[in-house]
Amino acid sequence: MPPVEAAAPGTVATRQDGGAGNAVGTRPPSSSPATRRSRRTSREVLGTPDAVAELAESCRACLQCGRCRSACPQGMDLAGGPRAVIRLILAQDVDRLLDCEDAWRCSQCGACTAACPMGIDVAGAVASVRRLQQTRGGPRCPERAGALLATRRLRRRPAIDGLAMGLALAGRGFLPRHPLNAARLGLRSLRGRLARAPVTTSSGADARAFFPGCSLTQDRAAYFATCALAAAAGLRLADGGAGRCCGHPSLDTRPSWVQRVGPPAAGESLLTACPACERTLAGAGTPTMPIWQALVARAHRGELRLAARSSRFVPYAGCLSDRDASLGLMTQAAEMAGAEPVMTNPSLHAGCCGGLGGLYRAPSRAVTDLLAFAAEKGAPIVTPCLLCRDVVRAAASRRQVRQEVFFWPEFFRPATAGPASGAGPVGAVETVQSRAATASNPDRVEVAQ
Fold first, then answer.
1. Are the beta carbons of 238 and 200 closer than 8 angstroms?
2. CA angle, residues 63, 254, 172, in degrees to nearest 5
3. Are 347 and 323 in contact (CB under 8 A)?
4. Which tens digits make up the pLDDT trace of 346-399?
5. pTM for the whole structure
6. Is the CB of residue 244 less than 8 Å from the CB of residue 214?
């Protein structure tokens, strides 16, 4: 297989528009049986069959019932899904296994493992296939290229730069499906980096440790909106993350890749604003809690009054959030803000946006259905995940659909911020932050401009 950095001589450029493989890039021409035997021999020298045989033993109890694929939030978009990956493992088909693209489209949500009636760690097996492909060859796809770039970046620096990542992928032949939207994301990342996105400076025994992650610190408007809600609730945040990455973009949750950040006191949870950060840090042994949970709890106690941008909205939890908990928090926030969550089948509100691949492939089935439902109801979409917001916005732009999509704190604001019909996302956030910063609340979140 050609390395991910560049196409090998003799490859041909292709564009696939199907759901299972519609990324732009290069792929090798069909190989002859002799070529496949040669590839297999080279892989045997690396010990791949032994590793696959060991992996197959851990999956031996598989019934091939298909529950893992049914539970997968992205199952409708994959060529075979987790069930097919396990089948290849059991068959010990090394060549097809090392060419399996579905292993890189996995979001590591763990739904397949939870659904397995035989107790097989399906997500862990898929992760093992990715690790085999990292060192023994693998498919050329944007997810794999992005993960390898993220891994290399995190070896040298503690955070992922969105603009640098996009340029590096473009240099490797992967171009986003909506260039204009990608340019906007790049400019936003550049502004966040040049302006040094604000860092909370609260301290003291009552300050809560907060890990914003690398995405939030590169989006100043979203960061200000989050700080404004915390300030209005009297929630003192100690930003110990300093824009560091949790390690999730590398698609490898082993402890060696996780930026461990411990809570300031025993028995306390680290507040997060990103479902990927929450899941990755928790998997590494750090107790975590979504900051939205802490804010909703304070609102219940009367310490925060919430207002909504509109009277109705469509909640979207994404695949990495705890679906029931996330939708429950948005429902509670809506009740206190006087808004109505418009919902239907729960799976519609917790499908996979496609992650990084969602910007380089056709919109996932989950996003397409979500946009259609929101358009039918005439309501904006609200999500606690910044990546989900950006991917859904990109899909709406590509489909030329006028659909509002908001990050949680862009939609739910302090009631003192003014009517929901005020300025747009950036203007509204700046107004809220200005008022929060000048309030006489001694527990306010101080923001360094």
1. yes
2. 95
3. no
4. 889 999 998 888 888 888 899 999 999 999 999 999 999 999 999 999 899 888
5. 0.77
6. yes
13 has pLDDT over 60: no
Instruction: Look up residue 141 and give its amino acid.
Output: C
By the 8 A CB rule, do 68 and 82 touch?
Answer: yes
Q: What is the pLDDT at residue 287? A: 87
Six-digit token string for 18: 């199907």
Cα 129 versus chain centre, distance: 20
Q: Evaluate whether 211 touches 240 at the Cβ level (below 8 Å).
A: yes
Alpha carbons 189 and 159: distance in angstroms, whole number: 12
Report the C-alpha gap between 188 and 221 in whole angstroms.
9
Per-residue tokens: 423: 């300025």
- Give the chain's length: 449
Dihedrals φ, ψ of 405, to 5°?
-135, 125
Q: Give the type of residue at 303.
A: E
Asked if 46 contacts 40 with a C-beta cutoff of 8 angstroms, the reply is no
| Domain map (residue ranges) of the chain | 12-171, 208-438
The phi and psi torsions of 283 (rounded to 5 degrees) equal -65, -25
Structure tokens at 140: 């050329």
Burial 103-118 (b: 16+ CB within 10 A, else e): bbbbbbbbbbbebbee
Task: Give 320's DSSP letter.
Answer: S
Burial 292-311, CB ≥16 within 10 A → b, else e: bbbbbbbbeeeebebbbbbe
- 239: β partners: 210
> pLDDT digits over 64-82, tens only?
999 999 999 988 888 889 9
CATH of 12-171, one of 1.10.10, 1.10.600, 3.90.1690, 1.10.1060: 1.10.1060
Q: Can you tell me the distance from the alpha carbon of 383 to that of 323, in angstroms, rounded to the nearest whole number?
A: 11
Bridge-partner residues for 200, per DSSP? 447
